Amino acid sequence: MKKKRASSSQPVVELVGRSEEQALISACIRTRRNVLIEGPVGVGKTHLALALCESLGRPVFRVDGDGRYSEQKLSGWFDPPLVLRKGYSLASFVSGPLVEAMKSGGVLFINELNRLPEGVQNVLLPAIDERKIMVPKLGVVHAHPDFTVIATQNPKEFVATSHLSEAILDRFELVVLDYQSESEEQAIVARTVSKTDLVKAAVRLVRFTRSHERIKRGASVRAAQAVAELSQALAETLTPREAFFRAALLALPTRIELERDVDSEASPPEELKKLVQELAQEAWSGAFEQGIEKKKS
Fold it and tell me: What residues make up the domain containing 64?
């Protein structure tokens, strides 16, 4: 459990764009409605959620979705040595993030809600529906009026996700995030890399992966950040072009998934390497040749 109290009315995480999504989520929070933020990996779901959580000025209790996460870990448990001395009482009970958030009027932030086991989701349901839960041997815990749940989830087709029941979904308002515009993604990468053409090439490269016919799952802006930063570091000993190609081969293989081609004679690693090199060449040429042409004109 991670507890963090906001210290000001401004989001701790500075955001690029997402003004419409921020307004939607803020409206949900003001009307005391729970929010589920859905989108593919790397679109900034967690950054957006945490920024808005911190802006509320309330304590935030974080839960990270995991198939091994237990019901007791969410709600709380009795400490055996304390039970021996004090019996089953509030003094021997260790509150989990759900109970802590309910009692304090805080925010329960669940990262990747649909990775939690069904049993854990069932513990959450009465808290967001009836705003109370029953803790065996302790009694009923009632939620403070300001208690709010903000959760994120990856789309259903992603690996390691589980089904959310209709009952759970009916208690959330849904905000869907997609990839941001090219200019906004460039602004994100430019926070850590100052060379404009390199930023453009890195963003262009990952955007190519999202529309390529041979790629099932493309890369996010996180991959563009990795490519740009690695290129900058590798350029200390390599030519800028070679550094970019090496960075692309480092950053993309773990972040994209190829469509299976039964007719291909190449092995998956060879096919992936060749495709990344092709896309890197196209991205590099486009970004830097455009830069050269602008300088000439």
Answer: 2-176
